[in-house]
Amino acid sequence: MLKLRWARSAWRILHVTGLLLVLGIDFFLRPARSAAEGAEKIHRYCRRLVRALGVEWSVKGRFPEYGALVSNHLSYLDILLYAAIRPFIMVAKAEVRGWPGIGWLTKQAGTVFVVRGGGPPSYPAVNHAMAEAYRSGVPVLFFPEGTTTNGSETLPFRRGLFHSVLNEGVALQTAALAYSVEEEEYSVANDVCWWGDALLFPHIVRLASMRRVQARVRFGAVVQEREDRFVLSAQAREQIVDMVAELSFATAVVVDGTQETKLVEAL
């Protein structure tokens, strides 16, 4: 059983590496002419990347067509998952731009890079970049918690990027996601969520060794109360907290039902 898991992990990582190489060559030979075109190309590849990692997903709610989307944040997998569902322009921390290979790919996809903790001096440049992203006609996705968690709570939202939503007068829609696993040897908190000081490659190896990961995504309503960034961010967080609770409950029911079925079959 252990050999099977590591063989599965090795095959999936090779598959993912191959897809990323092909994506890089595709962008090199046929550079995206716009952020929207880059997001569309990333979307097509991310559908294959997510499946290559053994992740299945279900979606509930209406996809955003434009404007801004905010979500809770659990893992690097979130980014691949949302991009697999539909084209988005992503917002990432500035450090990502310097990551070998990945930084270049995300730049080709029209990603907006922001300096974490840059404060007021960074606002003009960020607002300008966000305004351009909104004008692309593709929804712009950002994670206002500012970091990933193990799913036990939704952190307070950083309010900086909400400036751009109000400045540009675009709609803000909410979304939430949750994961579940079947195998008892794994947990969502430690083997799907990537948080704290967990090392990236060992985490990917373990994630890829699982038989299957199930992801549930729910798109919520457009936030109506938006007097200022404080109200806007608070209302968005309230919606997301409620959706996360609903998704977590649904995930627990599914997992319990699966385990019960296995017990009956064993008897």
Summarize the structure.
The chain is an alpha/beta fold and 267 residues long.
Summed up, the helix count is 9
Overall residue-averaged pLDDT value: 90
What general outline do the C-alpha atoms trace? globular
Main beta sheet strand tally, sense and closure = 7 strands, mixed
Order of helices and strands: HHEEHEHEHEHEHHEH
What features would you describe in this structure?
The protein has 267 residues and is α/β, with parallel strands linked by helices. The chain has one domain (2-259): 3-Layer(aba) Sandwich (Glycerol-3-phosphate (1)-acyltransferase). Helix content is 50%, strand content 15%. The chain has helices at residues 2-29, 35-52, 77-85, 102-108, 123-135, 162-168, 188-191, 200-209, 229-266, and strands at 55-60, 68-71, 89-93, 112-114, 140-142, 172-181, 213-222. The protein has a seven-stranded mixed beta sheet with strand order 1-7-6-2-5-3-4, sandwiched between helices. Helix 4 links the parallel strand 3 (89-93) and strand 4 (112-114). Helix 1 crosses helix 8 and helix 5 crosses helix 6.
